[in-house]
Amino acid sequence: MATLSLPIAILVKTRRRVALALILVLGACSRPTPQPQGSGAPLDAHRVALPEPDPAPANADGKAVWTKDGNTAHFGVPQSSPMLTLACSAGRLVITRPIAAEVGAGALFAIEGPRRIVRVPVDATSLPGQRGYVWQGSMDGSDTSTDVFAGPFTGTLPGGGLIKVTSGEPARDVVRGCRAKH
C-alpha cells in the first residue's frame, strides 16, 4: 500500500501546482496594461467645446404677469416686451413667442400643462413693425387642447429655452372668446 500512496501524493501535488500556475497565468492576462505617465489625458484626445448652458427659465423671478389688450393677452414683466402672446384671429388662437428665429425655420413649441402636453407647430414669422423673425403658430379656437393655456404651464422651444407661465384671467378670456367664435 505504501508504494501506491506515494505516486498518488506526487500526482495530487503536481495537479495543485498546475492549477496554481494556471490561476497565476490567467490572473496576469486580466491585468490592465500600464498607461504612460504624462498629462493624465488619454492618448489622441481632442478637446471639444461644450455648448453654452441653457438660459434660466423666463419668469424665473416671478415678476411676469398676464395683461389683456382687446383680443390679445400678453405675458411678461410690466413696461417691457412680452415673453408670450395669445391672440384670437378669425377663430384661430395665435401663439407668439417673440424670440429670435432664423428665416425659414420651423419647430414644435412644447407646452406642458397640469393635465396635458400640447405641441404647437411654429414658424419663423416676420411681424409688422418689428425687425427680424419670431416664433408664431396657431391652433383652431375650438380645439379642446387650447385649455392648456387656461392654467399654469411651461413651454420649451429650440433656441428659446424654457418659459414658466402662471395662470391668468386675460389668457383664459382670450381662449374662451376664441372658442365662442366657432
Strand order of the largest sheet: 1-2-3-4-7-6-5-8-9
Helix content: 10-25%
Note poorly predicted spans: none
The proportion of strand residues reads 25-35%
From the alpha-carbon coordinates, what is the Rg to the nearest angstrom? 34 Å
Number of strands: 9
Which descriptors apply to this entry?
single chain, 182 residues, alpha+beta, Immunoglobulin-like, nine-stranded antiparallel β-sheet, 2 helices, 9 strands, 32% strand
In short:
With 182 residues, the chain is of the alpha+beta class.
Question: Could you characterize what this model shows?
Answer:
A 9-stranded antiparallel β-sheet has the order 1-2-3-4-7-6-5-8-9, covered by helices on one side. The longest helix has 28 residues, at 2-29. The protein contains 2 helices and 9 strands; from the N terminus they run αβββββββββα. The mean pLDDT is 82. By secondary structure, it is α+β, with helices and mostly antiparallel strands. Helix content is 22%, strand content 32%. The protein starts with a helix and ends with a helix. The chain has a domain at 65-180: Immunoglobulin-like. The protein has helices spanning 2-29, 169-180, and strands at 65-69, 72-76, 84-89, 92-100, 106-112, 117-125, 134-140, 153-157, 161-165.
